Amino acid sequence: MVGPLFVGQGVTTLWLLVLAARGDAPALPVLAGAVCLAVVLVVTALGAVPLHRVLDAGWDAAAHHRLLRVDSVRVAAASLGVLAAAWLVLG
Asked: pTM for the full model?
């Protein structure tokens, strides 16, 4: 369900990185947004997905607790990514 959204955000981020490399977009907010997206993707792949698989097999309180911590990291990174986007647009 979130795959198409991640693909869209990845394509947009790559496009902005190209623009920044050419000097057509400010590099710092673009790089900040790219780092935030990378953190979200890595934490999702290495943390959230495996924990969801554990929970698919049945309730596991420890896995649920770890998933909440992983999701907190993802929310923080995504929120910082929104701030980077606002910095880019309003900057």
From this structure: 0.93
